[in-house]
Amino acid sequence: MTSTRKRPPFGRTLCAMITPFTGTGALDLDGARRLAERLVAEGCDGLVLNGTTGESPTTTDDEKTRLVTAVREAVGDRAALVTGVGTADTRHTVESALAAAEAGADGVLVVTPYYSRPPQEAVADHFRQVADASELPVMLYDIPGRTGTRIEPETMIRLAGHPRIVAVKDCSYDFLGTQKVLSQTELAYYSGCDEHVLALYAVGAAGCVSTIANAVPAHVAAILDAFDAGDTARAAELQLAATPLTEAMMGSGLPGTVTAKALLGRLGLPAGPVRAPLLPAGPETTDGLLARYEALTRA
């Protein structure tokens, strides 16, 4: 069975890549290159840099730009690069989007402005200003659990009319609202929640932006491969097999950044420490992550 899906704008299996740091907490560009190479070699056709998992709140504008440049050098045109530029300040977000284009990004991830709790018309205006100013296509990031503000489905539908607003990273936990937008627009939806990868793909999403893919990129890609091949039972089996690791990484009460870096570090992959105010995972948590990783990869 051959998939009839339209070609997604930023690839299909995207990893929300961590930002590696050195032992002293500096940006580790060599580690970022090596990690990006591994992710692409093992199934990711897109990378999201400088997102929440990439510790965007605690990296500087210069570090973000340097990271994009370094990863582009490493992966060339083998993967789409989307970089987070969203802030609580529209002017700053526009400036960051312009810098992303110069650094070699293929698109920008723009989160809803946080803390100020703007009403929906202000939310829409924020996104339009960014899309108007930059030549890059925009992926909206709907994650009200962190920002405090939804991008309501009606707002999404209006924004879909902008020629450069092309995609959504969906962490809304509103499956009905997501289906409403999918049914009425051409927006390419990407599941931002690892437990929803298959469910959202099955109703027409373009793919996923996965945190667990930092550790198991091939497994995440295999879920979508199986579905595209028409083997829905196998796709479901693979999705369910990832549940213990997904729960350990994303449902433990710790941010995915913390758990992903802990697991990658234990695996000898580029990671390094997290930046304050985050704290590293403890040995017991890391042992549990490793056990679940090994159970999944040895199955």
Automatic annotation (TrEMBL):
<keyword id="KW-0220">Diaminopimelate biosynthesis</keyword>
<feature type="active site" description="Proton donor/acceptor">
    <location>
        <position position="141"/>
    </location>
</feature>
<comment type="subunit">
    <text>Homotetramer; dimer of dimers.</text>
</comment>
<keyword id="KW-0457">Lysine biosynthesis</keyword>
<feature type="site" description="Part of a proton relay during catalysis">
    <location>
        <position position="115"/>
    </location>
</feature>
<dbReference type="InterPro" id="IPR013785">
    <property type="entry name" value="Aldolase_TIM"/>
</dbReference>
<keyword id="KW-0456">Lyase</keyword>
<dbReference type="InterPro" id="IPR020624">
    <property type="entry name" value="Schiff_base-form_aldolases_CS"/>
</dbReference>
<keyword id="KW-0963">Cytoplasm</keyword>
<keyword id="KW-0704">Schiff base</keyword>
<feature type="binding site">
    <location>
        <position position="209"/>
    </location>
    <ligand>
        <name>pyruvate</name>
    </ligand>
</feature>
<keyword id="KW-0028">Amino-acid biosynthesis</keyword>
<feature type="active site" description="Schiff-base intermediate with substrate">
    <location>
        <position position="169"/>
    </location>
</feature>
<dbReference type="InterPro" id="IPR002220">
    <property type="entry name" value="DapA-like"/>
</dbReference>
<comment type="function">
    <text>Catalyzes the condensation of (S)-aspartate-beta-semialdehyde [(S)-ASA] and pyruvate to 4-hydroxy-tetrahydrodipicolinate (HTPA).</text>
</comment>
<dbReference type="Pfam" id="PF00701">
    <property type="entry name" value="DHDPS"/>
</dbReference>
<dbReference type="InterPro" id="IPR005263">
    <property type="entry name" value="DapA"/>
</dbReference>
<dbReference type="InterPro" id="IPR020625">
    <property type="entry name" value="Schiff_base-form_aldolases_AS"/>
</dbReference>
<comment type="similarity">
    <text>Belongs to the DapA family.</text>
</comment>
<comment type="pathway">
    <text>Amino-acid biosynthesis; L-lysine biosynthesis via DAP pathway; (S)-tetrahydrodipicolinate from L-aspartate: step 3/4.</text>
</comment>
<protein>
    <recommendedName>
        <fullName>4-hydroxy-tetrahydrodipicolinate synthase</fullName>
        <ecNumber>4.3.3.7</ecNumber>
    </recommendedName>
</protein>
<feature type="site" description="Part of a proton relay during catalysis">
    <location>
        <position position="52"/>
    </location>
</feature>
<feature type="binding site">
    <location>
        <position position="53"/>
    </location>
    <ligand>
        <name>pyruvate</name>
    </ligand>
</feature>
